[in-house]
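Encode chain A's predicted structure.
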Amino acid sequence: MAIIPRNIEEIKPASAPSALYLLRTLTRSPVLAAVGFSPTDLLQLQLEKLAVNAIINPLTALYNCVNGGLLRQPSISRVMRLLLAEISLVIKSLPELQGVPNLSVRFDIKRLEGEVIGIATKTAVNRSSTLEDVRRGGPTEMEYLTGYIVRRGEQVGLQCVMNYMMKHLVLAKEKMRRDRRQRLLPIDKDDVD
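Encoded structure for chain A:
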């Protein structure tokens, strides 16, 4: 996704003619189905995606399940709502979104929960990238998902204890898995003195 102004007229006059031509071509091509978004609309779309990923990714990694495994589990639903309550409050408190129409509706907890359930349903048999990262003993995206929510929350004066805990639970699992893998690696006799 990239920032493409809704109207070509929104482009600053100093923009190169080739940039204008490229934007017109992209947005007019039926094969690409490119859509223009204002920077504020794009930010909101990215935050919606972040909210969904900040729920599905850590929970699937902790429960070692496919995305659909999160559905119809009352205990997981409760945790999801607590995480979403913090995420919703942080996003609605961001200074760069103040004054945006329908912000409270777009980032309402129930609406975000519907988005998470919808994505988990559509991708029910998929494994999240975080689950895959943990399984292979690699680094996860927790600093960019829940870590982002926690940092932005702190910037606006909110403590996101649930997201902080989720981040550290996944980071601990990631480290435990990596430590276990390292112990299983064969040691070359020449490396030992």
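The mean pLDDT is 88.
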